[in-house]
Amino acid sequence: MTFKKRINTLISKLETLIPEKLPSDGFFRTNFYPFSNERGISTPIGVLSNTQPAQVPQNTIRVAILVGQSSFCSLLAKLSEHCELAVFTDINPYFKQHTQKLQHLLQTTHNRNEFESQYKEYINGFSLSFKPSQVQPDLAMRKATLHSDHFLYSDQNFEAARLAARKLHFAFSEVNLFNASSRNGFFSCFTRRKCEITFINLTNLYEWDANISLAKVETKEQWRPKKQLKFIANKMTKYRPMIMFSTRENAIESCPLVMQMCFSFKDYFAISEQAAHAYLIARFPTLPVPMLVSASPTPELSAELEAEEITSASEVRSAPQVISVNHMLNKYFQDEDKPYDEELVITYNKAFTPYQTQIIQAKDPAKIEHALQDSPSKHAVLIKNLT
User: Model pTM?
Assistant: First the structure.
């Protein structure tokens, strides 16, 4: 079987997978967004540009998995250096229709004006099925957000994207990756064949892995990740893909998601957790209140501390993307003539500066109070008295 025929066979297998346990059509219609609302595409473009393509055995099909829209038109020029097949997967059939149209226009039009003219004619009819708010952000908004990185920014950008779209093969799947049976069927398409997954975009899937998505929680306590994404990571242990994803911020309402890149699922989960924690602190700010905890802490405080799941200073220090804040506290917990004692204080920065969460363990209540008084206003401090 020729290499091209093997790719076509894989595409056929992926596109005939039957989706299971999908939401209603009403859900799809009210949760359809034709373009991603992410910014910072220069990060993945830079990583794709500066990373050498994976060395794989001859006749191995290199695959990129794209969850959601993924700003793929603007990524294709660099992504095409790392794969032969781009696989889109999203449970929303309206997303599939729209993305396939973008792919078709990119492959068949010859310049930017022709692309935009034909797309405008298409979207004017397609968008009639949705509320105006459901077709935002639109193409113009994405051009403004991504600026010089957008595929329609210049003739050079468009031509690079067009050539990449003609070079690559594309597959579209609607399987639900949170469903075990669908997930197994999807990834078995690759593991049973000579494939290498070199790139995966998980977009903001992390914040949907919960009963209430991160953007919709009304209190910090409502955010309870199910951690089902770990099952997806387990299916990827055979591969070492570049991982593109996005984290949520409060800074820009129209584009609250920021693109990120990493090279391991360990880093992916650590960064995503830290960013979600920072988002919640910024959205639901609470001022640290100086208090001295008795030798028997309240059940509420004990539960809060246990939830942090911190077992040792060495475990904390090994977590990726964790920024040490020990040096910020030395002046409070270290005598001038005594070295810093790790058994006395354990600090853990669970989020990005300036939204840091510190867990302080100390034997001297006076030192705790001193640290609280001088603690920056944006720091949330939890205390456990060890006496």
Answer: 0.72
